[in-house]
Amino acid sequence: MRKLLFIILLLTLLVGSSSAQQGVYIPAGGTVWLSGSTNVGIFSDMTNNGILGSNPNTIFYFLSKLWTNGNGSTLPDESADGVSGTGGIFLFSGANTGLQKVFGGYSLTARMGTSFPNLEVNNVAGLLLDDLSDLKIRNNLQFTNGHIYLNGWNLQVGEKTPGTITGYNDKKFVVNGTGFAGGALYRAGINDAANKVVFPVGTADDSYSPAAILLTGATDVFGVHTYDSVYTVAAGGTAYTDSFVNKTWNIRRIDNTGGDAAIILQHMDVSELPAYAASRDSSFITHFTGGVWDNVPFIPANPLAGTLTTSPMSEPATMHIRNFTGLGASEYFTKTILVASLKPAMFLSFEAYRIAPVMVQLDWTTSREISNAVFEVERRYEREETFTTIATVPTKAINGNSNVPLSYTYQDLNDYDDWTYYRIKAIGRNGKVVYSEIRAVPPFVQIKVYPNPNNGKFKVTIRGLRGSLLMQLRDTWSQVMRQYDIKSDTDVSMSDLPSGAYFLVIYHKDTMKVAYTCKVIVVQ
């Protein structure tokens, strides 16, 4: 019976056209109907200018490259009006075809045209919306393998309700592109009864950034388009380089019927900019309104692990929710952190060391600064209990903001005969402070090498030691010729050295930082 149906189908498809057609063709006025539990496979391109109907439990396997719905074509289901029933499944499978294309024959703007009852994507190369046409699916969109690429056009799921989207996760979803312009994924009939409606979208194959909407007090058709970067004026201006997730969500609505909306946004953690990642627990959804990204006095809801998926995520994701009233036809959202939680500086490195018996040099580098005002240099001697501010160093960051490394140096007059401790305090314009790590500097150690030059016999005198040292004598190939552990003031005699040049290197043993170097010349 199925074989007979397939033969009848092909005969019907190929009859009724006076011009030669490539692939399978249903002419205008032609009708083909899939009934019962029919499974049909098409291995060449498909053009439908007529009627291709389907009943529940039928599957239309499309295994070629291009499906085209022409003007006036329909894909009715078993219902009286042809669009309110269940219909069959149109399964796009491309194991041997690569990327498939579909010209949907629908116009979101006119809200007219052809629509599929159900569509399944089972093609790792994906399904691309062909130019100059949107795509509409009345009931269910199933992701089995691969993505749907909007290619600048729109995809609507649902007729009078949001329909269903199944099988999606961070490897199978709707890809709308990286730019702020382009198509969106729309869901119809969003209202109280629909509960949470998910929009599984992302900017690229590996950049899943879904959204979800709960609307109360109204019914509307919503669309979601996400893009990379966060701009000062939402869809233009300068891109922010810190303190945000590197994603913006443009949420659109067609009927603009009002109501209260709970917006849920999810991002992959790898898309977080550095300052945001450091303060994720203080992050929230920000809305572009009144020409600026808004702020909140407190976190509306704590961020949670992402759950906008139908199967476990392959990489960590974070999800936020925020409630809004009276959203317009096109609104922009992203994620940022509370201003009060911003640290004025992120220290990349901090070192402190003696450069002379009475001088200590401090070097520090920041990887980024946000509204930073000044650095304070703090010092504590060994026998003191608290740090004391000894100097202030202004920030080099323009207006206190920088996302590139900036280096600073300060020299402290210090002849203290015991250990000294230093730290750097960054103070933001908002009063926020952050400290560097603490660095310990030993007292000055007096080291004498004599005679130098010598005849292979010389002495090293060490005085004022407050910690263990490691002393090495190295040849010009940096091979260690002699090595000594020094734990207190001492005299070390060396002899029986052949002619040549040597380097005496002394390290602080606990840190292995160089405390002293000297070139020793032996002449026989």
Explain the overall architecture.
By secondary structure, this protein is mainly β. The chain is built from 2 helices and 46 strands. The strands form 9 sheets. Strands 3, 6, 8, 12, 14, 16, 17, 19, 24, 25, 27, 28 and 31 form a 13-stranded mixed β-sheet that branches. It folds into 4 domains: about 140 residues, no CATH class; about 160 residues; about 100 residues, Immunoglobulin-like; about 80 residues, Immunoglobulins (Immunoglobulin-like, Sandwich). InterPro entries: Secre_tail. This is Putative secreted protein (Por secretion system target). Keywords: Signal.
List keywords for this structure.
13-stranded mixed beta sheet; mainly beta; 2 helices; 46 strands; 524 residues
